[in-house]
Predict the 3D structure of the following.
Amino acid sequence: MAQKKMTIIASKGSLDMAYPPLILATTAAAMDFDVTIFFTFFGLDIIKKDNADKLKISPIGNPAMPMPVPIPTLIGCLPGMEAMATAMMKSMFKKHGVATIGQLLGLAKESGVKLIACQMTMDVMGVKQEDVIDGVEFGGAAMWLDAAADAQINLFI
Amino acid sequence: MSGDVKVDQTLDCKGMSCPLPILKTKKAVEALSKDQVLKVETTDPGSKNDMASWAKRTGNEILKVEEGSGTFTFYIKKTA
């Protein structure tokens, strides 16, 4: 069986949206896929140094967000609500034996997942190469397209 | 021995959620020699189908699956 390839564009930097790219990437690697993740726009936050486990989830604009009691959208805007929602989600993940973002990122690197940081995003957001975790390559749209052209699965998350 | 299957290595993934049982199984199988058997215990109900998909894709063989009360035990032969 020829080796399958998958690429993922990770464009979101919230706790909830950091999970799907990393879960799929690590699992695909475990299923012998050659995997590339391209981190762009807010997705770049996932691979900033010491930032993976500091990502937050916002209770705003997400009617599916589980809360101990139903909370009107307006209340979600109050200071501390984001921290509360984040802490709650993290404790739910922990209780159910879900790996942290930092752990998944480590497992992705360990299993040979290729990580690419979007250089344009870095320039716009003032992120330097030394601000990003080790083992990341830097490039742009052409680099992703080159990988994607040979892949069976390409996802934008 | 576990039933009629000779187990070479055991992996405890009880209490872990997707994708950890698959990632740990992959790592454990890689450490085996060809034709050796890994016994994996999970509690994730999704792992039953996930493990089958993983084995199919990586070319390893699931010899047997045992279902207990909330637990799944897989016997995986390294054939790839």
Remarks:
- Chain B is about 30% helix and 30% strand.
- The mean pLDDT of chain B is 94.
